Amino acid sequence: MWDYSDKVKEHFFSPRNSGVLNDANAVGDVGSISCGDALRLMLKVNPETEVIEDAHFQTFGCGSAIASSSALTEIIKGMKLDDALKVSNQDIADYLDGLPPEKMHCSVMGREALQAAIANYRGEEWSDDHEEGALICKCFAIDAVMIEDTVRANKLSTVEDVINYTKAGGGCSSCHEGIEEILVKVLAERGETFQAGPVKMKEENAQNGKGGKLNNLQRIRRIEMVLESVRPQLQRDHGDIELVDVDGKTVYVNMTGACAGCQMEALTLQGIQQKLMEELGEMIKIVPTKAGAYARAASQA
Amino acid sequence: MDAIYLDNNATTRVDPAVVEMMLPFFTEQFGNASSLHSFGNKVGLAIKKARMQVQELLGAEHESEIVFTSCGTESDSTAILSALKAQPERREIITTVLEHPAILALCTQLEKEGYTVHYLKVDDKGRLDLDEYKRLLSDKVAVVSVMWANNETGSYFPVLEMAELAHAAGVMFHTDAVQAVGKIPMDLKSSKIDMLSLSGHKLHAPKGIGVLYLKRGTRFRPLLRGGHPERGRRAGTENSASIVGLGKACEMALAAMDYENTEVARLRDKLEAGILARVPRSFATGDVSNRLPNTSNIAFEFIEGEAILLLLNKFGIAASSGSACTSGSLEPSHVMRAMGIPYTAAHGTVRFSLSRYTTEAEVDRVIQVVPEIVAQLRKLSPYWGETGPVEEPDKAFAPTYA
Known about the structure:
The structure holds two protein chains of two kinds. Chain A is of the alpha+beta class. Chain A has helices at residues 6-13, 63-76, 81-84, 89-95, 104-121, 144-154, 159-166, 176-189, 202-205, 216-236, 265-280, 290-300; strands at 26-32, 37-45, 52-60, 135-137, 142-143, 239-247, 250-257, 285-288.
């Protein structure tokens, strides 16, 4: 069975705000019957203030789909529509103390239902180019469609390229066979043949000896070096990261540009944290600072 | 209230008598069966006895037809890869769309390597079209691999008849009988089955032990080469404790065969009828008049299987589901889809699989709990109205993307 947090279980066993909301004036239906999730979000919006006075849901889906729906209604009740639109799927997952990577799409569905409901209230047409493929990389929750698109758009040709561009395969490496299969297929489309070669993993990249205790200056230099190494990746996505402070095992950073408030922010940070731990050979906790959070709010406003 | 375990097609509890038989083989009887000294010799004799116990359960003609492996999956892979290696000029395989991933994933890989795999289709009850099968049999086919009983629905494929047809066409026949062995009587010596896979942990033996039955005279190429165990057909030091345990479990399964097919079947029927009578819009899937005595697979429309399992688990009831969300893939069970079960029902399938340890009181409890759980989830479902499905569910609830 899935490793659900207590919060997920609690919201599943006792969902809040379930059932039909009779005087709803905003309704959003989203879902994918083939993958077994469908969600109807019903809102009662005050036309004067645009405050969400009540929110209910009906969900056909698994435990985490029901818990995500329940969490979403709790998060947005009392919010103004414009503020509610800033709720990301990561906020829903965070509210539930996290979701397994295979289940992150449940929180995405919640966010989409919210967008659909608000579009419905405002008389707008909401559409989504939602396409989800089979989950390839479980460490970073990257699916086949995303890898394929990235390989195509950037003319990637090695597993290492895929790791650098999408992070898929950069963790435990057990999905490299799946990544190779995608490369074989996409390379064949453009008339090339996939050439397998050794994949340089992070550990091998770290040439400096890990033995011996680092002094503070060395540690901070190492941390900066890791941040430098991921920076090109972030900048490619029009974002950036800056080091704010190092306090013992906690590394404070600012996520800026497109990275601030990006749906993948938590995953990105998780990946960087992993890199830091490997490079420094100790437990490290990476924390985005408040300043970053403000930037996020500003960028979404 | 003790936990109620109705997931015996996933795995079973090792019988205490089996454990007792095994224990000495970790401590006193630790010798290598291939060794000449007395430490090894006794182990060799114990393995011989276990081999005969397996032979008897399967109704095999010779004990040397029993090859111990590490699991059902290994037996499946060994059988199919052996058939291909032994007959390199034959580049085709016939199997079915309902097979276990141990067969299907291997076939997918073989297709990438250039082999042609024919997947026999099934009707809405999971039954094969034998005419299609007969047309595909040819001297290009290296092996036919068809499961004896389906792990999700328990339904049988007519493997005895299909083996006869394969034999007549000069084609090797393998059956994945992991779910069937120990639950229904078998007499392999009177059949034309060339190879059969079984797995210990489905019949109250431990995990990590399996058997490939290999009819004498069947051309064979080992998967693992090395030392002499299993007459050179499966190298690697024998897992003696588990082999002894499997032997005992086979003996016990044979002794309980009547009980399995009368009492376990009665409890299964009571469970299924009880649930279907109390839960509207539910139905049993598969070929219900032709299936294992212990399995019932019920589809609950308009709700999702993982949610059902989580609530059942809260009541201490263990079952399993063909829903997408329990497997981590985005698609519901390939078995339900192949039978054409609509998505709104396929996601809500729950498999109850009993064993000879299941009691009447447990069955009564499940019959009592399931309707409450289904009602609770349907209250949450956008496809369900006050008392039944919303009218024209497809139109009343049409999400933006699907």
